[in-house]
């Protein structure tokens, strides 16, 4: 049933009321636990949890002083967990779901996006070293030599702007430093896993510091060859790993307050992309295209089994390159930062596409993407009554390529069948923005924040589709259809918030903010376009921007003599003009429309408790309500009141580490963590069906020996002890999978 505005208002008021009560209780506890006693706490107790500094608000500050919902995962925590790709980050961060399908799918608090085409954009901003990565296909960066990862939940429309409706993920590498250091690691595991990393930092002189980092990753396919798959090809079934990455940085110090950092990075990937298995590996009673069936439990091996025709053996070659320049200057009254970057991403892949009982087709793709971005920021010095940041931003993107389907696509997807179909890509996007945000201290404890950002986005395309009807190849009968579109969009996003320090090290905050994702275009062209032979109306050719208004309140701080660091957040989203995708049965082309509105609300509690010097407990609890208010998916089906994709109603995360001190100064750290997710759904929008996946858990264990002075370590690990495998995406009767159980040994040293 659709919520009316009065009901939404009551829901929002109730949520804020409940969150405020719990936050006030936390603050009251803090008053007793961290008041006068906190000043006298022993230094070892006060610092045992460590201080995490983040740059979520474009300035360095403690995570406990940052009035946004943020989780920071340090490089050391990444090493301890064994997470080395973005898809594994979801096990570490509350209300974050990252799955692998056609490309990386990121869902934050139920806000996600299925559109991986050049005409669309993701709903979460993915930034590497401060640079926005637009294409989901290029967001598979490995986690090596990272200082930390910051995950910001909620719209970041003021400071990050472009396509940060759901939030932002920031990968922050280690920077060059002024002393010599080096490290190396190696890992072996099941599925013939072999990974290496190497880092060296070398100060050349007082003027120049250099840092180089390298990583290689390899494992065999996670899939299992069925009887129809040719013997010996199991390692090339897809869902394998085979890549190398490197990063070289130079820090030039013109003076103590003026620096220039130059970074170049590259990656080569020859692994096959995530491959599909029949959706019937998970669901019984599935109609080939139009029915979801019901879940049934099976072994991990059975779920990962495929029966590919040997002629559809795939291949892949991807290349990612980037150059970055960051200039910082202390102007006295403020700090000036310029960040400019150019990135290119290219891939070629040849893969089978599975249509359940309807058969297979071969898909070849050649894709080229170039991005350039420039950001100029001016930020006030910290410690003043008024702090502010202001900036200009410019982004440009150009994508070209071709996607080919061979042999004929099976009915009923096309009518008549095609001998081949080529989708050409020639798309451009640009974005220009001016932004500013300021915080004013009304008193020593009370602060008010306001921010604005004006963004103008442009998108254009000249991407024809060439098809050939009939089962016999004859290029003289090619049919070419024009797809020509050009559109610009603009939006003013804003944020208003309050912060109040109720006790030393404890803060309450609340804010209202907006997010925006640019609109785009579908296949076709307007009747006024020269040479148009695929006429569409304005409303059918273009779809409007997606918009979200978020209300958030929370508390964060240190409690109980600094043995507990915790945060509590409540949020409410009014989600409008949702951009949703479907495939036209008549043309087999993807169409995006502003098909729905939704209401999302929930709460998040996360933190860490160190009851003793050698014990540490991480915990998180999330509650989430994410449902469509209105969604007439087709003439016969209405999804009002249905769940949004990848939005489990709850998730629980608990981890425990214990350190055993050894007489020689070494130690052994034993750790276990588990995540329990409620049931969730994945939609097949073109068929108007939702696949419901049951609740599940994923448990990881790790045992690490650290030498005296922590100069080297040996670590054994096992991830996903339950061997739970879940679909990450479902398209036309085929499913992309999460990782199965993995285990292995790592060794590492630093010098």
Can you offer a commentary on this structure?
Residues 283-721 form the TonB-dependent receptor-like beta-barrel domain. Keywords: Cell outer membrane, Ion transport, Iron, Iron transport, Membrane, Receptor, TonB box, Transmembrane, Transmembrane beta strand, Transport. It is a multi-pass membrane protein. This protein has one domain (5-750): TonB-dependent receptor, beta-barrel domain (Maltoporin, Chain A). The chain is globular, with a radius of gyration of 26 Å. The chain is mainly β and 751 residues long. The longest helix has 29 residues, at 5-33. Residues 1-7, 13-47 and 410-414 have low confidence and may be disordered. The protein has a 22-stranded antiparallel barrel. Strands 3-8-9-6-7 form a 5-stranded mixed β-sheet.
Mean pLDDT: 85
Shape: globular
Helix content: under 10%
How far is it from the N-terminal to the C-terminal residue, by CA?
A: 62 Å
Number of separate domains: 1
What CATH calls the topology is Maltoporin, Chain A
Q: Decide which structural class fits the backbone.
A: mainly beta
The CATH class turns out to be: Mainly Beta
CATH superfamily: TonB-dependent receptor, beta-barrel domain
How are the SSEs placed, and which strands pair?
Blueprint: H1 5-33, H2 36-39, H3 43-47, E1 53-54, E2 61-62, E3 69-74, H4 75-81, E4 96-100, E5 104-108, E6 124-128, E7 131-132, E8 146-153, E9 167-173, E10 181-189, E11 193-203, E12 208-219, E13 224-225, E14 241-255, E15 258-269, E16 276-278, E17 283-284, E18 294-295, H5 300-303, E19 305-306, E20 315-330, E21 334-354, E22 360-380, E23 386-406, E24 418-441, E25 446-462, E26 465-469, E27 479-481, E28 484-503, E29 506-517, E30 520-521, H6 538-541, E31 542-543, E32 546-559, E33 564-583, E34 590-612, E35 615-631, E36 650-661, E37 667-677, E38 680-684, E39 689-693, E40 696-706, E41 712-719, E42 727-731, E43 734-737, E44 742-750
């Amino acid at each position: 049933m659709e919520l009316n505005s009065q009901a939404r208002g009551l829901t929002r008021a109730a949520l804020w009321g409940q969150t405020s009560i719990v936050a006030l209780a936390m603050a009251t506890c803090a008053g007793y636990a961290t008041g006068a006693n906190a000043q006298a706490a022993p230094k070892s107790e006060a610092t045992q949890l460590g201080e995490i500094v983040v740059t979520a608000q474009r300035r360095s500050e403690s995570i406990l002083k940052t009035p946004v919902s943020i989780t920071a995962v340090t490089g050391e925590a990444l090493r301890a967990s064994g997470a080395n790709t973005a898809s594994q980050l979801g096990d570490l961060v509350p209300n974050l779901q990252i799955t692998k399908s056609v490309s990386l799918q990121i869902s934050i608090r139920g806000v996600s996006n299925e559109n991986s085409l050049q005409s669309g954009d993701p709903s979460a901003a993915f930034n590497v070293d401060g640079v926005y990565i637009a294409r989901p296909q290029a967001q598979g960066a490995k986690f090596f030599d990272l200082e930390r990862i910051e995950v910001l939940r909620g719209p970041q429309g003021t400071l990050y702007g472009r396509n940060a409706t759901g939030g932002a993920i920031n990968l922050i590498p280690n920077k060059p430093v002024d002393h010599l250091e080096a490290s190396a690691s190696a890992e072996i595991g099941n599925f013939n896993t072999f990974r290496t990393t190497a880092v060296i930092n070398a100060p050349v002189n007082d003027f120049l510091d250099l840092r180089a980092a390298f990583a290689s990753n390899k494992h065999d396919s996670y899939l299992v060859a069925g009887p129809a798959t040719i013997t010996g090809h199991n390692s090339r079934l897809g869902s394998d790993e085979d890549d190398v990455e490197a990063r070289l940085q130079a820090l030039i110090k013109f003076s103590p307050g003026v620096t220039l950092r130059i970074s170049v990075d590259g990656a080569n990937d020859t692994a096959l992309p995530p491959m599909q298995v029949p959706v019937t590996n998970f669901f019984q009673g599935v109609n080939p295209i139009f029915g979801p069936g019901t879940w049934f439990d099976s072994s991990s091996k059975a779920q990962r089994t495929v029966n590919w025709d040997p002629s559809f053996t795939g291949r892949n070659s991807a290349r990612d390159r980037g150059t970055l320049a960051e200039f910082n200057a202390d102007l006295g009254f403020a700090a000036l930062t310029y960040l400019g970057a150019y990135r290119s991403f290219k891939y070629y892949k040849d893969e089978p596409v599975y249509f359940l009982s309807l058969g297979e087709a071969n898909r070849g793709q050649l894709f080229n993407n170039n991005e350039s971005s420039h950001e100029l920021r001016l930020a006030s010095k910290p410690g003043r009554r008024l702090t502010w940041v202001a900036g200009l931003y410019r982004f440009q993107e150009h994508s070209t390529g071709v996607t080919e389907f061979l042999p004929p696509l099976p009915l009923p997807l096309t009518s008549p069948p095609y001998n081949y179909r080529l989708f050409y890509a020639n798309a451009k996007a640009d974005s220009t923005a001016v932004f500013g945000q300021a915080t004013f201290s009304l008193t020593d404890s009370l602060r008010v924040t306001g921010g604005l950002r004006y963004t103008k986005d442009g998108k254009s395309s000249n991407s024809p589709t060439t098809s050939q009807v009939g089962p016999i190849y004859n290029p003289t009968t090619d049919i070419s259809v024009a797809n020509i579109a050009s559109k610009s969009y603009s939006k003013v996003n804003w944020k208003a918030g309050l912060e109040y320090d109720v006790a030393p090290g404890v803060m309450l905050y609340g804010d209202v903010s907006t997010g925006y994702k640019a609109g785009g275009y579908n296949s076709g062209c307007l009747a006024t376009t020269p040479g148009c032979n695929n006429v569409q109306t304005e409303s059918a050719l273009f779809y409007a921007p997606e918009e979200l208004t978020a209300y958030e309140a929370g508390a964060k701080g240190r409690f109980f003599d600094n043995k507990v660091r915790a945060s509590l957040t409540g949020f409410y989203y009014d989600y409008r003009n949702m951009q949703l995708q479907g495939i036209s049965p008549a043309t087999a082309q993807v169409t995006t429309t502003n098909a729905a509105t939704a209401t999302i609300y929930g709460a998040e509690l996360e933190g860490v408790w160190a009851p003793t010097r050698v014990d540490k407990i991480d915990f998180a609890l999330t509650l989430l309500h994410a449902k469509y208010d209105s969604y007439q998916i087709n003439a016969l089906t209405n999804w009002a009141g249905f769940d949004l994709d990848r939005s489990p109603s709850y998730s629980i995360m608990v981890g425990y580490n214990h350190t055993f001190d050894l007489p020689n100064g070494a130690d052994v750290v034993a750790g276990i963590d588990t995540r329990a997710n409620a049931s969730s759904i994945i939609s097949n929008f073109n068929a108007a069906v939702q696949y419901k996946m049951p609740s599940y858990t994923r448990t990881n264990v790790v045992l690490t020996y650290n030498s005296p002075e922590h100069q080297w370590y040996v670590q054994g690990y096992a991830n996903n002890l339950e061997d739970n495998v879940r679909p990450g995406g479902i398209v036309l009767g085929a499913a992309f999978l999460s990782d199965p159980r993995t285990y292995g040994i790592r060794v590492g040293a630093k010098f």
